[in-house]
């Protein structure tokens, strides 16, 4: 990041704006996917940035972040803390169910392992977006979210500020979360899931009988 300038005309709803070079010259397009600082960008802030080109050969900011006092004053996005609390509460509940014998270790490990893999996938996709390289298909990300990886996706979205402003993506993401939680609830309490529970090594038919019959 050897260029300095002023972030101008920033549209936070659409996630893009322009950087006016410190020494003058043509403005450079800047997208939220290239933002490398904390929190959310705001207009009329000094930034440092690198120069790259998009697929059409047009100049754009490769990475940019606040500079000087603006960088010091930038705070961690509140969404990161909210996501961290949600993930922590969810895994605490899973650990409690495991401790009480209502959930096998394999389920807890699956949520943790797939979440970690998906967190890394989000990071790779964010870097690809910044470089204009080939991206990971959204359907692939949604599939991993559905298959127990949504806690990792939720954290990655906030930490990397990735996919948070795309309404259609968020709609499918939360559908995947609800579908996954519904499947987990069905597995734990539904009488129809008894054979699957036995296959996974836990049988709650006696302890949960008052709840499901």
TrEMBL record:
Pfam families xrefs: CSD (PF00313), DUF1294 (PF06961)
All copies of domain CSD, residue ranges: 2-74
Main location: cytoplasm
Signal sequence range: none
Alphabetized PROSITE patterns for the sequence: CSD_1, CSD_2
GO cellular component: cytosol
SMART domains: CSP
GO MF terms, alphabetically ordered: mRNA 3'-UTR binding
Keyword entries, A-Z: Membrane, Phosphoprotein, Transmembrane, Transmembrane helix
Keyword Membrane annotated: yes
InterPro entries reported in the protein's UniProt record: Ca-reg_mRNA-binding_domain, CSD, CSD_CS, CSP_DNA-bd, DUF1294, NA-bd_OB-fold
One example of a Gene Ontology biological process annotation: regulation of mRNA stability
CDD domains to which the protein is assigned, alphabetical: CSP_CDS
Membrane-spanning residues: 80-99, 105-124, 171-189
Subcellular location per the Swiss-Prot or TrEMBL entry: Cytoplasm
PANTHER family in alphabetical order: CALCIUM-REGULATED HEAT STABLE PROTEIN CRHSP-24-RELATED, COLD SHOCK DOMAIN-CONTAINING PROTEIN CG9705
Protein name: CSD domain-containing protein
């Amino acid at each position: 990041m050897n260029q300095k300038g002023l972030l101008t005309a920033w549209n936070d709803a659409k996630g893009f704006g322009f950087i006016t070079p410190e020494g003058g010259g043509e403005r450079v397009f800047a997208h939220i996917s290239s933002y490398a600082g904390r929190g959310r960008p705001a207009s009329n802030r000094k930034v440092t940035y690198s120069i790259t080109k998009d697929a059409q050969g047009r100049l754009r900011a490769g990475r940019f972040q606040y500079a000087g006092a603006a960088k010091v004053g930038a705070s961690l996005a509140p969404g990161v803390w909210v996501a961290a609390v949600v993930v922590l509460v969810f895994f605490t509940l899973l650990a409690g169910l495991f401790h009480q014998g209502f959930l096998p270790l394999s389920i807890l490990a699956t949520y943790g392992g797939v979440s970690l893999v998906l967190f890394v996938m989000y990071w790779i996709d964010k870097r690809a977006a910044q470089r204009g390289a080939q991206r990971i298909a959204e359907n692939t990300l949604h599939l991993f979210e559905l298959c127990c990886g949504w806690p990792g996706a939720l954290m990655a979205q906030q930490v990397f500020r990735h996919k948070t402003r795309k309404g259609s993506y968020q709609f499918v993401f939360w559908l995947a979360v609800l579908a996954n939680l519904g499947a987990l609830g069905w597995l734990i309490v539904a009488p129809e899931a008894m054979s699957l529970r036995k296959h996974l090594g836990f049988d709650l038919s006696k302890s949960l009988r008052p709840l499901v019959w």
